[in-house]
Amino acid sequence: MMHSLHSAEDKRALRRELRRRRQSLSPREQRDAAHRLCHQLKRLPEIRRTRRISLYLPVMGEIDPTLLIPWLRKRGVAVYLPVLRPLSHNSLWFVAYHANTPMVKNRFGIAEPDTRFAAKHQRRLPAWALDTVILPLVGFDAQANRMGMGGGFYDRSLAFMRRPGPKPTLLGVAHACQQVNALPVEPWDIPLNAVVSDQHIVRPG
Ligand SMILES: Nc1nc2c(c(=O)[nH]1)N(C=O)[C@@H](CNc1ccc(C(=O)N[C@@H](CCC(=O)O)C(=O)O)cc1)CN2
Ligand SMILES: Nc1ncnc2c1ncn2[C@@H]1O[C@H](COP(=O)(O)OP(=O)(O)OP(=O)(O)O)[C@@H](O)[C@H]1O
């Protein structure tokens, strides 16, 4: 693998390679990874005390965090999904997700709760109102640095983390095969509290 990423071109190439890696996992490997991830997550103190958590519906080989939902429901935890904000460039809202939530496809083809419904029922929150955010990662390193899809969606939505005030726990999740030696840290990157894979938990520092 590459030792350093000096250009945007290198970063794009690495993102492409890591996306290819997770997409080449078999359905069986995906299923096993999802179960192992769920097991790792349930052990985390941050998850055991969460009341409002956002996760995501997996696409294109992303590790599946949704096996956690029944366990969260039993504990009375409110579950949210990211929704693209219509009038705010590349940032996210978080909308309550239930079995009967009306869903629509966003411009990337990812199912998300219908915001018209969410607005009416006041079930739409900015990230600061959550206590845990589960982020889908394309790549991560041993320092828990992250690489996402490249849209800056989570970084923009979490920019408030730099200011005083309430701060959710940020947990990146990924397949173990998405780990690399080192990722470049960009000025806008918001640090994670941990990265959780199907095989281990990585904390920064
Ligand atoms: N499951 C899931 N949901 C998520 C994210 C995610 O990474 N995974 N996001 C995390 O940010 C947000 C959506 N961000 C995304 C950013 C880029 C692409 C994407 O597929 N881009 C295409 C090319 C762009 C296009 O189609 O116009 C690509 O890279 O091939 C998808 C989602 C919110 N929801
Ligand atoms: N807080 C911010 N304000 C303005 N632009 C931002 C902010 N955060 C990130 N960006 C922009 O978003 C773009 C994508 O950033 P980057 O490549 O780090 O995405 P990513 O972290 O992989 O994606 P994501 O956050 O969606 O998982 C960059 O061009 C960056 O300038």
TrEMBL record:
The keyword Metal-binding applies. GO terms for biological process: folic acid-containing compound biosynthetic process; tetrahydrofolate interconversion. It is an enzyme of class 6 (ligase). It catalyses: (6S)-5-formyl-5,6,7,8-tetrahydrofolate + ATP = (6R)-5,10-methenyltetrahydrofolate + ADP + phosphate. Its cofactor is Mg(2+). GO terms for molecular function: 5-formyltetrahydrofolate cyclo-ligase activity; ATP binding; metal ion binding. Keywords: ATP-binding, Ligase, Magnesium, Metal-binding, Nucleotide-binding. Its EC number is 6.3.3.2. Substrate binds at L57, E62. ATP binds at K11, R12, A13, L14, R15, R146, M147, G148, M149, G150, G151, G152, F153, Y154. The keyword Lipoprotein does not apply. It holds the Pfam family 5-FTHF_cyc-lig. Belongs to the 5-formyltetrahydrofolate cyclo-ligase family. This is 5-formyltetrahydrofolate cyclo-ligase. It comes from Vreelandella subterranea. The lineage of its organism: Bacteria, Pseudomonadati, Pseudomonadota, Gammaproteobacteria, Oceanospirillales.
